Amino acid sequence: MKVNKKHARTIPFFTLSREYAKYKKEINKAITSVLTTQQFVLGEQVRLFEKEFASYLNVRYVVGVNSGTDGLMLALLALGVGPGDEVITQANSFVATATAIRAVGATPILVDVDQETFQINIFEVQKKISKKTKAIIPVHLYGASSEIEKITKLAKKHKIFVIEDACQAHGSGYKTQKLGTFGEIGVFSFYPSKNLGAYGDGGAVVTNNKKLYQLLYMARNHGQEKKYIHKTYGINSRLDELQAAVLRVKLKYLDQHNLARQMLARRYVELLRGVKTQHILPNSVSNYYLFVITHTKRDALQRYLTSLGIGTLIHYPIPIHLLDSFKYLGYGSGDFPMSEKLAKTCLSLPLFFGMTRDEVTFVSQALLSFQKSS
Ligand SMILES: *Cc1c(COP(=O)(O)O)cnc(C)c1O
Predict the structure, then answer these.
(1) Residue 16 CB partners (closer than 8 Å, separation 6+)
(2) Cα(36)–Cα(38) distance, rounded to whole angstroms?
(3) Among 91, 177, 322, 362, which residue has the fewest nearby CB atoms (within 10 Å)?
(4) Per residue in 71-97, pLDDT tens?
(5) What pLDDT digit, counting tens, does each position of 330-362 carry?
(6) 231 CA distance to ligand 1 middle (Å)
(7) Among 69, 120, 195, 348, which residue has the most ligand 1 atoms within 8 Å of its CB, making it the best to mutate?
(8) Is 45 in the pocket of ligand 1 (CB under 6 A)?
(9) Model's pTM, two decimal places?
(10) 165 pocket-lining for ligand 1 (C-beta < 6 Å)
């Protein structure tokens, strides 16, 4: 097939409408049941979702919270991280990873990412560990695994905590274990576009440690042990019942949906020979939250795809160290070359539930025809 403007059709970067069309009955029923019971906060749905998600992840405890960002912040709080402490994370992530560190009064120490996996660079982490380092937050970027085994080993050696930012990695795994269950605490986001997405904001923190669980359980609800008995510092960051009801429906299909994404991603890889894509670690499984390529003429490529009706996005156009809101950290241009290079060259291609093989072919051919003509 020759790709020209006449073949243009609309392939959105992302849509939930195909998923909703398929599960409409089941989802509507779940929502209606919450409306009928009139239990909107911390009821049966949240309790059951926490139980089911724990069993899915094979982890002891899950606490539903209001968002992934809150989850990261509550995880830091539970581990006693605060003012004067340093927390290491990567420059190439969604801003929330660094925001959470700042929110508890600690200092984000940024490091660069690896040029093949785009994941946190473990050698750079090693260099930044100091007496003040309390925790590392590796992000499982784009839904693929970071070098989580090496990271937990390094952390143990230096007696620092690992909080996994698994906000993009629902159902992804390393060896036989699900991501989010390697560190002291794992954090998930249920923002609608995530592989397990709610119909609004939502998140969860997961742990195998009972003490941390108790702290997290109280901290998401005003530090409350029982009504009006406040044992510890806490905020209002509860997952609500409507979201939990939707998540319970969608959790049942998560593996099946991830598998479908993996097949589409494999098709992209097959068709896009010669185009640089994210390297996935051996012995790991990505849920392909995002399918990311890099291209030296990224902006022109994006414009070309847009002209053909193909939606794309950039994750992320400005690395955290160059954001105005993190200027106070004192980093500058050139500090993290790989993150900066990625910001200039990466492009996320369409990938969502219900996308067809044919649509992947169309996007791939469009990309290859750009390659040829440029
Ligand atoms: C989505 C996301 C978050 C934050 O999640 P919210 O639920 O939107 O607060 C944090 N880190 C990463 C890497 C994310 O992709």
Answers:
(1) 192, 193, 197, 352, 353
(2) 5
(3) 177
(4) 999 999 999 999 999 999 999 999 999
(5) 999 999 999 999 999 999 999 999 999 999 999
(6) 28
(7) 69
(8) no
(9) 0.97
(10) yes
